[in-house]
Amino acid sequence: MPVPTRSSPHTEPGRIDPQPAVAAASRADLIIPRIPETFAGVPAWVRNVLPTAVSLTIPLALLGAILYVNAITPAPETDRVSLSEINLTPAIESSRPITAPLERPPVQAPTDPQASTDHPPPPTLPDPPRVIELVGLTNSLDAQSPDLISSVGAVNGAGVIDAIAGASSSEQPFASFAGLRSQAASRIVYVVDASGAMASSFSFVKDQLKRSVDRLAPTQHFQIVLFGDTKNRPEGTPPFRVLTPKGSKPTLIRATPANQQAVADWIDAALPGGRSNPADGLRAAFEFKPDLIFMLSRSIQRSGPNASWGRGKDAILADLDRLNPLSKHTARRRVTIKTIQFLDEDPTGTMKAIALTHGDGEGSYRLVRWEDLTKDPDQAEQVALAQALSEDDNAKLERAAQRLASIENDGSALSVLFGVPLPEQRDSVSRATEFVLAVLATFPEASASSDYDPRNPPDARLPLLRARAAILLASLSDDPAWRRQLATTAIANVEQLSLIDTNAEAARRVALGVALHLVDDTNESRRVLRSLISEADLLKAKPSIVAEAMLALLLTAQNERDRALGVAALRDATELAPFVVERLPDPLWRLAAAEATARTLLPEPSLAPGALDDLLALTDDESLITDPRQRTALVYAKLAAATDAQARSLDWPAFPPEAAFARAVVLARRATGWNEAVRLFEQVADRADAGALAPEALWEAAIVHRVRNTPESRARATQHLERIAREFPESPRAADALSAAVADASAAGEGLPESYELGVLRLAVEKYPDHPQADLWRYKYAQRLSGLDVLDVLEPIKAGTPEGAAAAMLYLETIADLTAGPLAPNSLERVALLRRAARYAERHDARPRAALFVDLGEAELDSGDPGRAMPLLIRAAALKETIPGGQARLDLARARAHLAVGQTAEAFELLRTLASSLDASGDRTDMFWHAWTLMLEILAERAGQGESADADAARTNLARLRLLDPVLGAEPWRSRIEAAARQLDSAP
Q1: Using the 8-state DSSP alphabet, how is residue 308 labeled?
Q2: Are 598 and 636 within 8 A, CB to CB?
Q3: pTM of the model
Q4: For residue 337, what is the enclosing H or E element?
């Protein structure tokens, strides 16, 4: 039987591509983004799924304090441009605009229009910016990324915020290269060895260089110096290459996306050659006046008196000291130099010495060894393949078996064959199977034109490994022709194979059954798989192999009956091995069974509503993952993967709300899916059975609306956040949702009625009195109220804070407005209000208190309680604050208080001094006539008691007053003065 192949210019007829791991670009349908492993001790794909879920635990505890950054928006695609198109002239370059945080103008707290300018200005309140970042499952809305897992997190708690983080605008720009990192670097030069010694590893260096440049911010500038002194270098040209635009002088380049893309092309085209000359490269770097130099070299160990390019370590260090001297003022060097010794040890110690004297401390030097190169997935793949191809046949087979075992043991193979694989699992399986097929391509294949006999192979492992790898690769492919070719290859290897080992025979039948299904020979596939299941006891096959046969049999189900019966049998089997081991559930097999159930039932409309039940049940299964947040993240990722293929045809209300939620998360990652994502999120929030998922759905919908960033969408986001706070106050999201809603609602006119902010503030004040921003919300709410309501809202605000100071000023202004209104000056209500204001001012140490004490003292006098008035007036005098009406007003009030308690002499002395002062200044207003009225009344009373001297003085002053003003200051003073005059006339 001819062995099918996929056409390739490097593939001989009858063979699978011998180096698919290297030439994988010809299979675009199998190229999946790669995510490095970060968690040890758990399956690899689980480690890839969930690292960010843990990283958000602490930030979520502090979310209310740190959510003040702009919402993330998807970055537009940028086409590569040619090097000649790069604008390198700093004078005409434009960098990304830097937007300062929104700042609220200082709060203009109410002031008395008659108050002196000596009063303190109103404080500036710590009002948060309008835009607050919402961290959740969709907080990394990248339309380019097919990786679902990077946006999946637990429902109650952390959402997943990565790589947005972009450094907030407050962070200093940094740079990193080949494992070294430096902070506060704005002008970076890479000095990189491009000599012939780098030929075998230059691709790694170029990759590290591109990654480093791509990580730079638009506020940073960079340049690259590739040194390597070639024999055919034209006379007069330097022994290094510098990134230079056509027709321009080399200069630092701004790290804009377009420049980064163009530089990548230049780096890709660079080839190593010549002798190493790092000293010249360093001198060239200093011409650009950088603040950071990364230097990477392999051959600096040749430094010495006999080296053609250098004069030895001491001479190099001396040169660098002249180029980069220590500052006399700061004891620091202007340029930081970090060095990377590449592959070989540096016996001269030059690179270490440069880093020690010109670096910024520990972490300025690194030795990169060969084994470090294998940590890069692509490099590691090539190195491992090269090693495998150099080994003998037995070692090759062992290495291929180990590689397949790695994806069998972590559950990736089961998910690809029978379940709903995640992108990381697809990637892992793709790498492993292409590696295995590349290794096995060195063996003879089952072909009609060869002497290879599949019934009697040189090693029974060969056809089984080849078949297993082929069906895994076929299961990944979306290309029907390619999938059929791979499945036919598997059939050719195992169909006629005869094996003695019973487990090997069972494995052969599973491979054959799956391969037959992949070529659409369903009946024969079911026969092979059923025969294995029925003969399992006879063959004494491992339970795991029999379980695979059961899962494979589900693939062949073509009608409702077969699907229902197959799932029922599988659910019964989950109480036995391998789904249970020593009475404990096996997490990967339980997950595989749940995935297979979902994959089997979803295509059948009548069975679809229960298809996800088994997956959902795993959210409570601690044997899967102990951490409930990580466990929920994994289950949701699987739910989304399970429903992806049939999402458009599913009746979402018939499914558990978790299914629609998980699907919405996937849609929210693409701009084209935002409308449907929001619809599903809102649908989940409205469901009676959503429970704690309802506020999460509203939160995620708000994120999508925020990213859209239109007035209408921002208004909708605010409404969703306000709804979380109003309807779900027990949700962990509630407080942060309310904080964001209040901040957004302050932007009147952006799709919200002006009254909306008042409602949000009322909700904040009434339902969240203990929130860290509660006092700020109370103050903002009180600003929009009037009358006694203002006082009631301001009362709980704590003293000694900016909010407390602003609240006190608003409080006192409100009191002033109320007491100057329709209330009678001597009414009990006015006194009560002023007493309340005095207590508040005392508690908040408010200014000006003296004016308030005088107001209250006067009110107490008017209401007939001089005992309360005198202490207040004494305190007002002691404060030595400027008050409306000045010292005259205070003296007059004190005189009235003395009179009220019978201290006539003290009162008369104050009034005499006051009247003289006002008379001398020409200030003959009401206060002048009030003072004279009181003095004349005192003198008239004394005259009635027989004190003639007082009567004479009174008559003299009365005559003078009539000359000053015939109407005696008008009413009420005229009547009272005339009454005193009559009393004087009748005196003895």
Answers
A1: S
A2: no
A3: 0.53
A4: strand 336-342
